[in-house]
Amino acid sequence: MDKVRLLLQERLTDDNFERLMAIDCAQMHDFVADAIELAGPESVFVCTDADEDLAYIRQLAIDKGEETPLAMDGHTYHFDGYNDQARDKANTKYLLAEGADLGVSLNSTDKKSGTEEVRSFLKGSMAGRQMLVCFFCLGPTDSEFSIPCVQITDSGYVAHSECMLYRPGYEEFKRTGGSGGFFKFIHTGGELENAVSRNIDKRRVYIDLEENIVYSTNTQYAGNTVGLKKLALRLAINKSSQEGWLAEHMFVMGSHGPGGRVTYFAGAFPSACGKTPTSMLPGQTIIGDDIAYLRKIDGKIRCVNVESGIFGIIRDVNSKDDPVIYESLTKPGEVIFGNVLITDDLKPHWLGMGAELPTEGLNYSGKWQKGKIGPDDKEVTASHKNARYTVRISALSNRDPQADAPEGVPVGGVIYGGRDSDTLVPIEQAFDWTEGIVAKGASIESETTSATLGAEGVRKFNIMSNMDFVSLPLGRYIQNNLDFAKDVESPPLIFSVNYFLKGEDGKYLNGMFGKMVWVLWAELRVNGDVEAIETPTGLIPKYEDLAGLFKENLSEDYTKEQYQEQFTIRTANLLAKIVRVEEIYKTKVSDTPQIVFEVLDTHRKRLEAAGAKYGDLISPFELV
Ligand code: SPV
Ligand code: MN
Q1: Is residue 294 within a helix (H) or strand (E), and if so which, with residue range?
Q2: How does DSSP classify residue 86?
Q3: pLDDT at site 152
Q4: For FRET with 404, which of 107, 526, 587, 602 sits at 20 to 30 Å CA-CA?
């Protein structure tokens, strides 16, 4: 018997050993054996797809104190540490072998020393604990899109979250033996104090693209720990680049047009910029809210939701603005509430929930009362701004019937969003795929939010809203996007949207559901039902079409004044944006495709010409 098999046999109970051996994949066995030797757990649980195993994981999270049941049946809450409330970009790094280069925009470290460092944090980390070995599948199972994964963790909460957020993968792994490639994740919360990670200074997320392994240590926040989420996205971007498909930070939703028609959209927005609310718009159907894989199948672009659940921002979820999610959070069923406020009656409360907040309770800072000042000298809000909920999509009333289709859904349109208070109009269609990829996706700038650690409200370049997850030199990533539609007969239309445009008084120009009208307009465009107005940078809606959509869907009178303010072309701001984006491609991206500069330059010339003719601010009525 070989060494690995012997070790596994020795350290696992017969039952667990058999479960592991039922998967014919030596590489996976090596990974598990190495993890056991390194982390030194007291016991190992191998999780299959069986309901009892999922129930075991859920109960474990509770028994370990990582989750606590709430009053409502099936609901639990979880707290991350005070300083562990968001993705840690600074300590998330690619492990680069000598000679490898991802460019200056990506955070990386030397592979040898980085691996040694993170392995030193893993060493002995599971002493006295149970190691969980779980199997999941990215994308629907038994499909061209499927990528099986193995997740090792000592956290019941992480494993439980994954059980809700991903399709089970034990049977998939058994079927394929991981033959098409698979991903490996190892996580430890490290030393715990009051059930939260204590050594935040040793928080690391290190990504090894050659081995398809991600290490995560001394953290619990799901964005840093749930391997299949953003850790896998980084591995998938690299794999997709080698295989000619795309892995994107995108929702997928069905937009319901006239006569029962459904048109599918995939949309990339930076974190906390309206991606989940767009995928959950009333009257529309959801496939997924965060990560999509896109492939060409029979000459058409199709996509799937990589996940099967939502890890969404809970702030401002209320019965008025987010009725479907609100309903699923307020009825019995499996929900994990993360970093919200809990009162003695075991009820969750959060910012913007549409009710007055209690003045005391328990939150991620411990015992809380209104006005409490945290260790960072800042006032602690009742719930964290990045507080989250975890639900299964199967529990949602607006789940699209195609949500788990192995062949995915056809992509009618691609939408790029961002948080921009003063430059882009609410929606604009790109002239074609190339201009869309360059001037919409690859030119996204967005004001930062609480989804990552650090200052909020700073305008940052965010290529395809995927900047935090791209694992390739940026020029190659753009080229992959450009090439993807080359041999596609009618590529999806590309749109930019901006829900965050503000007026001179600093107030948002759009209500919560304006986004519904923009998406429905895009649906009409994809199907050739309405005309559009040409601007220097794309195509915008006609007033009449929007007024009709507002009336029909929101019973709102959309005035000409509103339209004019929202759809004014802000020439100077658009030109300034081009200069900023060009500067990044000139100085920070050494492999920028020439076409990027050409498209940006064309836009500049058109904007300058229009500015010379009409002035800095161009009313859409002047362009008709
Ligand atoms: C995001 O921040 O984009 C999220 C949540 O979807 S997570 O990446 O898990 O932090
Ligand atoms: Mn996301």
Answers
A1: strand 292-297
A2: S
A3: 98
A4: 526
